[in-house]
Specification:
The chain has 623 residues and is an alpha+beta fold. The chain has 16 helices and 22 strands. InterPro entries: DNA_mismatch_repair_MutL (IPR020667), DNA_mismatch_S5_2-like (IPR013507), HATPase_C_sf (IPR036890), MutL/Mlh/PMS (IPR002099), MutL/Mlh/Pms-like (IPR038973), MutL_C (IPR014790), MutL_C_dimsub (IPR042120), MutL_C_regsub (IPR042121).
Length: 623
């Protein structure tokens, strides 16, 4: 029997490894930026075209490479950062596995130009699918320039799995932000299709955060700093009032390497306990400096997972440091009697013997039912009650006459009642077109009498259901009507949100928005949906909430793009609890609700309508 096990060719082995290291253009961007940092560069340029599918180019002014190193860096497991096994537990560099360049060269057309600072000539090398096409001396700038063209050109199945350009560009911006945050002393720039997205000068951490996320972040940051024998912690956290409903502004760095760690994230969220709602996430950019011997970074090829020797202690330190920073800057309440001014009114300078305790006086002969009580006083006791009874003093007529005939439900017992039908009508006609007398409870619920008892409707959930079905229909038929704004509004988004908005622009217009691109990361809103003409929120806030809600729906529920957009629009545009409604508004709301396909449930799956039968009411009164 012949042998069947054989070694794979290097080209195939590199393509297999590339599946772990390079999942999308953003993965290649991360590896190339980290190599530039390890080379000691203080200025790094990133240029991408077609969201990285056509070109990814990283130019740095680092140490450069010799002729031999330029060729060796494309070999598997070739690295300058590890010499022996013990070095794996003393890693301070970004890269160390020696897989990235070989993996990228296996699935792309790569050209590298490099020159060391003390040499007159550099080297240019061209590789395609792991095969070296050309290597020769060349006059080039100090440092290294690597161009990755036509990513996944030889693995079309992998290329087909890539998302749209705006989606892939958002991932590239995410990786760029993480690297730029970790190294504020390095100047970075990012260009996409000839447009400058970022130009970040060398700065300190706080300035780098502001440059990346916007000037309004300057007032949102709270410093955190803690030094212990286990770790040194520093960075910034966000004030609770600026927390968002979507994740994306949470950054952990261990020895300047970005990591994802749900356990440490829980420590930060726990420190915000009672300061934030459960569905809000605070901003934080935290750096943990720890002895490399106490961690293992060689867990996954992406190097975003780390194992710790003493993670419980790290959790406790992180939680207490964040909690103390929140208290120190008066974000969370304190019980410091030396500083708290709320107790000053309770302190008196009188001697104890001068303080007279309060006394209680009462009339022991008082009888509220005495006949000699003035009639006027007895009358005033009833003055505040609504005169809704018949007979008695003044023969006051009832104001709720025929209240029981507001709704009629035919052929339904209380147990079977789940919809409202009028006598002689088909079941699908669930609400009478005649205006009804309704009542609003605490500006949250609409109350109405029905034949078998009473009905409660959650006004916000009902309006969300109405708008959701309406916007879904607009997205399907592309006929959302727009109301032109008298004064067009501009909205400036973060680069990430701008790319997201560009990918949604056609669907956003289908809802009824009139939006167009207007310069760098800016859109002009010239009209809003007719359905929202009476909304109190301005166009800019509405659009920002729409994008934020869309991200939240996609993250939490993994919905398709249009459904997530309709949900976000409905939630942000619906009337809120506490809104006062008139009779006509309540009648219109209920009519539109019962015209929906699913009137009984909200877009989150919770009930919109609750009915309480007469039998249940009688039971509560022991009848």
């Amino acid at each position: 029997m012949s042998d069947i096990i054989q070694l794979l060719p290097d080209s195939i082995a590199n393509q297999i490894a590339a599946g772990e290291v390079v999942q999308r253009p953003a993965s290649a961007v991360k590896e190339l930026l980290e190599n530039a940092i390890d080379a000691g560069a203080n200025k790094i340029q990133l240029i991408v075209k077609d969201a990285g599918k056509a070109l990814i180019q990283v130019i740095d002014n680092g140490s450069g490479m010799s002729v031999t190193d330029a060729r060796m860096c494309f070999e598997r497991h070739a690295t300058s950062k590890v010499r022996k096994a013990e070095d794996l537990f003393a890693i301070r560099t970004m890269g160390f596995r020696g897989e990235a360049m070989a993996s990228i060269a296996a699935i792309a057309q790569v050209e590298m130009k490099t020159r060391k600072h003390d040499e007159e000539l550099g080297t240019i090398i061209q590789i395609e699918g792991s095969a070296v096409l050309n290597q020769e001396p060349a006059a080039t700038a100090e440092g290294t320039s690597i161009s990755v063209k036509n990513l996944f050109y030889n693995t079309p199945a992998r290329r087909n799995f890539l998302k749209s350009n705006p989606a892939e560009m958002r991932h590239i911006i995410d990786e760029f932000q993480r690297v730029a945050l970790a190294h504020p002393a390095i100047a970075f720039s990012l260009h996409h299709d000839g447009v400058e997205i970022y130009r970040l000068p060398s700065s300190v951490l706080k300035q780098r955060i502001v440059h990346l996320f916007g000037n309004n972040y300057n007032e949102r940051l709270i410093p955190v700093e803690e030094e212990t024998s286990i770790i040194n912690l520093k960075g910034y956290i966000g004030k609770p009032e600026y927390a968002k409903k979507t994740r994306g502004e949470q950054f952990f760095f261990v020895n300047n390497r970005f990591i994802k760690d749900a356990y440490l994230n829980h420590a930060v969220n726990k420190a915000y306990e009672e300061l934030l709602a459960d569905d809000h996430f605070p901003l934080y950019v935290l750096f943990i400096d720890i002895d490399p011997a106490n961690i293992d970074v060689n867990v996954h090829p992406t190097k975003t997972e780390i194992k710790y020797l003493d993670e419980k202690s790290i959790y406790a330190i992180l939680h207490s440091a964040v909690k103390r920073s929140l208290g120190r800057f008066n974000i969370s309440p304190t019980i410091d009697f030396d500083q708290e001014t709320g107790f000053s009114s309770m302190i008196t300078h009188k001697a104890p013997e001068e303080i007279i305790p309060p006394s209680i006086s009462f009339n022991p002969d008082f009888n509220p039912f005495a006949e000699d009580k003035p009639a006027v006083a007895r009358e005033s006791a009833y003055a505040s009650f609504p005169k809704t009874y018949s007979g008695g003093r003044g023969n006051i007529q009832p104001s709720t006459k025929n209240w029981g005939s507001l709704y009629e439900i035919a052929n339904h017992s209380p147990a079977e009642q789940s919809a409202l039908d009028l006598p002689g009508q088909e079941p699908e006609h669930q609400f009478s077109p005649v205006q009804k007398q309704l009542m609003q409870l605490h500006n949250r619920y609409i109350i109405s009498q029905i034949k078998s008892g009473l009905m409660l409707i959650d006004q916000q959930a009902a309006h969300e259901r109405i708008l959701y079905e309406r916007f879904t229909l607009h997205l399907e038929d592309r006929k959302g009507a727009s109301q032109q704004s008298l004064f067009p509004q501009t909205v400036t988004l973060s680069p990430n949100d701008y790319e997201l908005a560009k990918s949604l622009l056609d669907d956003i217009k289908s809802l009824g928005f009139e939006v167009r691109e207007f310069g760098k990361n800016t859109l002009v809103i010239e009209g809003i949906p007719v359905d929202l003409g009476g909304s109190n929120i301005n166009e800019t806030q509405l659009f920002e909430h729409l994008i934020e809600g869309f991200k939240n729906s996609q993250q939490e529920l993994k919905l398709d793009k249009r459904d997530a957009l309709a949900r976000s629009m409905a939630r942000n545009s619906a009337i809120k609890n506490g809104t006062v409604l008139g009779q006509e508004e309540m009648n219109t709301l209920i009519e539109q609700l019962f015209a929906c396909k699913t009137p009984n449930f909200s877009i989150s799956g919770k009930p919109v309508i609750q009915t309480i039968g007469l039998a249940e009411l009688d039971k509560k009164f022991d009848k």
